[in-house]
Amino acid sequence: MQITRYTDYSLRVLIYLSALPPMKLARVSDIAKGYGISRNHVVKVVHNLGKLGYIFTQQGRGGGIRLSKAPDEINLGKVVRDVESTLNPVNCEAMECPLLPNCRLYTILQHAVVSYIKTLDRYTLADLIADEDSLNQVKQLLPG
Q1: Rounded mean pLDDT of 7-24?
Q2: Reduced to 3 states, what is the DSSP secondary structure of residue 74?
Q3: Could you tell me where the DSSP H helices lie in 19-131?
Q4: Calpha distance 5→48 (Å, rounded)
Q5: What is the β-pairing status of strands 64-67 and 55-58?
Q6: CA 70 to chain centre
Q7: Burial 36-58 (b: 16+ CB within 10 A, else e)
Q8: What SS3 state is found at 8?
Q9: What residues does each domain of the chain span?
C-alpha cells in the first residue's frame, strides 16, 4: 500500500513540529521551505491537522503552529486513518471486473491493509525522532 502525498505531507509536518522546542511555534512557510514543498499544500495539511486536533494553530502576527500533544501521544496508525481518504487497496466497483463475485484478491488485500495499519499502530511520532541522528536530521530543516 502506498499512502497519498497528502498523508505523506501530514506526517512530515508532524515530524517537523516534533523537533521544535516545547511551546515554540513554527511558520508554514518555514515548513514548506524545509521540505521543498508547496506552501499551499502545507496550508491545507495544517488546516486539516488543526481540525483533527493534532496541532495548535495561532493566527496573526507572531502566530504559528505547534503540536497539541506530546510526540509520544500521537499514534502513526491513527494519523494515517484520520488523514488518508481511503484505505481501500482496490476499487472493485469502479470497473466491471470479470472475476467478481468470486475474486479473493480484494479480501487478501484488505488483510494486508489491516496488517499495515496494525504495524503503524505500534509506533508514535516520538519513535520517528527517537535517536540522535534522526532528530538532528529533522532539526536541520528548522530555520536558523
Answers
A1: 96
A2: coil
A3: 28-35, 39-52, 76-83, 105-121, 125-128
A4: 14
A5: antiparallel
A6: 15
A7: ebeeebbeebbebbeeeebbbbe
A8: helix
A9: 5-139
Domain 5-139 has CATH 1.10.10.10: yes
The predicted model scores a pTM of 0.89
C-alpha cell at 51: 481540525
Is 80 exceeded by the pLDDT of residue 94? Answer: no
Residues 43-75: tens digit of each pLDDT: 999 999 999 999 999 988 889 999 999 999 999
Q: Which three cell numbers stand for residue 110?
A: 484488505
Distance from C-alpha of 3 to C-alpha of 87, rounded to nearest angstrom: 9
What's the CA gap between 7 and 13, in Å, rounded? 10
* Confidence check: pLDDT of 89 > 80: no
Cell readout for 87 is: 484505505
What burial class does residue 134 get, using C-beta atoms within 10 Å of its C-beta: 0-12 exposed, 13-18 middle, 19+ buried? middle
